[in-house]
Every structure is written in C-alpha cells, then in structure tokens.
Design a protein that fits this description.
By secondary structure, the protein is of the alpha/beta class. The chain has 2 domains: 192 residues, inorganic pyrophosphatase (n-terminal core) (Alpha-Beta Complex); 120 residues, Diaminopimelate Epimerase, Chain A, domain 1 (Roll), CATH 3.10.310.30. Helix content is 40%, strand content 18%. It is built from 12 helices and 11 strands. The strands form 2 sheets. The protein has a 6-stranded mixed beta sheet with strand order 6-7-8-9-11-10, with helices on both faces. Strands 2-1-3-4-5 form a 5-stranded parallel beta sheet, sandwiched between helices. A hairpin with a 2-residue loop joins β8 and β9. α2 runs parallel beside α4, α4 packs antiparallel against α5 and α5 runs antiparallel to α6. The termini are far apart. The protein binds guanosine-5'-monophosphate and manganese (II) ion. The site of guanosine-5'-monophosphate (5GP) has 16 residues, from β10 and β11. The site of manganese (II) ion has 6 residues, from loops.
C-alpha cells in the first residue's frame, strides 16, 4: 500500500481527528491546517484544529474562528495529524496531543523532517506543506472548493516568498487549479504581504535601527528583545519577515535575526546564494530549508550572536 493510500485508510477509519502544527505558525502552517480541516469536514469527519497562539493577520482565511486555542485534558482523539512541522519538539503545546492520540499522521515538506508519525508523507521537493495537501486531498477523492483553495493558496504563496523559491512546474499547475475555484488572489496577496499594523511597523523600525553588517558585509545581524515586544504590545508572529531586510542588502549572503523569548534566543537565518543555512540550524538541533532555517540558543545575546557568527564563518571557509 502506498503512503497516500495508508493516509486515506487511516482517515476513513478515524472517528475524531485533531490537526496540529508548529509553534509560531506561518502562512503555510495555518493555510494547510485550515485547508485540510475544510476538506475533512466535507467528508463528514469530526475534526478540530489546535493552534494555541496565532497572529490576527491570518483572520481572512475561512475557518479562522473555528481554531481551538485549548483542548480539554480529558478530550480523546483517535487520530492526530501534524502538518508543516519537522519534529515533535516544534509542535510546542500540540506535542502532548500528538503523543496522546492512538494514531498519528505527519504531512510535511521539510528536508529535516524526522518522520515522527505512524504514517509519514514528507515530500521535501514540494514548495510547501499546502502543496502536499493538494496531493493528499486528490488521493482521497476530495475536490477542492473555494474556501479550501483560499487557505491552500495562502500557504503556497507565503512559503515560496511570492512564487520565487522552491517552485516546481507543478507548483504553478496546482496554483492554477486553485485559481479555477474563483479565489481572489489580489486580496490574498494584500492580506499576507501588504496589510500591517502600527505595532509591527514599530518593531521592524527597532530592528532596522540595530541592523549591522559584519564580515565585509557578507553577514547582516539584528535582534529584538522582550522589552521591545512589551513596549509596542506586539502579537505573536509580529517579527515575521524582519530577517529579510538584512538579506536584501546588497552583498549580504547570510542574514541573522535573533529574537528574545522566555530565557532563550530564537534564531532565524536566511541566505542568498551559497550558504546552506539548514546545515547550521541542524548543528543546533533546529531545522528548515537551504535558504531559510531556525533554531534556539539558550544563552545571552552576545554569546548567541558570537556562536552564530562563528558557525557562519566556518561555513564560508568550506566554500
Ligand atoms: P523562521 O526563521 O521563519 O522561524 O523559520 C525558517 C524555517 O526554518 C521554517 O521552515 C521553519 O519551519 C524552520 N525552523 C525555524 N525554527 C526552527 C526550529 O527551532 N526547529 C526546526 N526543526 N525548524 C525550525
Ligand atoms: Mn512550510
């Protein structure tokens, strides 16, 4: 039996299903969970989506209001589906739900995925988890309607940086199929890339003020502290995209963005042409893709900065 057939069988069998995704959920995480939720509801499945903290910017996606921010402890699900998460740890609060479920399925596109489910559909070539969801829905015989397409298109759009990265010919074929449902792609684009808030803009300003170039301009580095987040009353996920400002500076190969969280720093890396940042992330028990990866460092700002910079420098030497 193929993996897709096994997924269909498991879902057909399940009476109650919960979908979980990674912490700091991005467009692909939210788009894939909501898109798949709509698909499973269409075949009359009892399905919940659990995302404890989510940025309001995704509220244009149909089903946003159905997302559960907590699950009662005594609630039992016989199937848990993890979407867009490369490992158990990344599930954050969703981890306990995943571990408690009798059966589990993992659908993802991270090359660093640890195949932590009973059934794992990991196609790392695909642009996004949302693209993999289209394949799974097709294998299950579920036709994509407009509300599903809005969510799925959103994840494909954000994870490819506006159809620039990790795009295969079929990415456009899939996007074309979604367009046929009548979705308003200008409106989706605007919600995901243009609309912002004053708090997000202020946070970006703070990070830009601190932006510095190192190693003859090949490394860009900036950070935000917990104090900044409190000062501007930011929401979870308001830092998203800040790392790209460093990467966009001419001559920069690797952009580092450090974000202070509870007692540790979350590191985001982006590269332009030749440094494989997923290898750097893997060294620190993180993960991601060749041009976008992340991990956590349990140290002070200065130590974290030095640690990341010296690892990038050693990658430069190998090239
Ligand atoms: P970001 O920098 O936007 O948080 O993440 C960039 C990419 O790296 C995403 O694909 C994200 O899933 C992955 N990533 C970020 N942080 C971690 C981490 O701590 N662990 C793992 N496994 N992947 C991460
Ligand atoms: Mn993704």
């Amino acid at each position: 039996m193929s993996v897709l057939e096994a997924i269909k069988e498991e879902i057909d069998k399940a009476k109650s299903i919960i979908i979980v995704t990674h912490e700091n959920p991005d467009g692909d995480a939210i788009g894939s969970t909501l898109g798949f939720m709509h698909g499973l509801k269409k075949i009359e499945k009892d399905v919940d989506v659990f995302v404890p903290i989510i940025n309001k910017m995704y509220d244009f996606m149909p089903g946003y209001d159905l997302i559960k921010k907590e699950i009662p402890e005594d609630k039992e699900y016989d199937l848990c589906i993890s979407l867009d998460s490369s490992d158990l740890e990344r599930l954050g609060e969703g981890r306990a739900i995943f571990e408690k479920a009798s059966n589990t399925i993992v659908i993802d596109h991270h090359i660093t995925n640890q195949n932590f489910g009973d059934i794992n559909y990991v196609n790392a070539v695909a642009s996004s988890t949302c693209q993999n969801i289209i394949v799974v829905l097709a294998a299950m015989g579920i036709a994509i309607n407009k509300e599903m397409a809005m969510c799925i298109y959103s994840g494909m759009l954000t994870d490819t940086g506006g159809f620039r990265y990790n795009v295969q010919p079929e990415t456009f074929e899939f996007a074309g199929m979604l367009l046929e449902t009548g979705i308003d792609i200008a409106k989706i684009y605007k919600n995901l890339f243009d609309v912002t808030t004053l708090a997000r803009t202020k946070l970006l300003g703070r990070a830009i003020e601190r932006l510095e170039l190192l190693e003859e301009g090949k490394i860009a580095c900036t950070y935000i502290s917990q104090k900044d987040i409190e000062e501007f009353e930011n929401e979870e996920g308001d830092h998203e995209n800040i790392v790209n400002y460093g990467r966009n500076i001419e001559g920069v190969e690797v952009s580092i963005f450090l974000r202070e969280a509870d007692g540790y720093f979350k590191v985001s890396l982006r590269s332009n042409e030749y440094v494989d940042v997923s290898r750097i992330a893997a060294k620190f028990a993180g993960g991601g893709h060749i041009r976008a990866a992340g991990f956590e460092l349990n140290m002070s700002l200065e130590q974290a900065k030095d640690t990341v910079i010296s690892e990038i420098k050693s990658q430069f030497k190998k090239i």
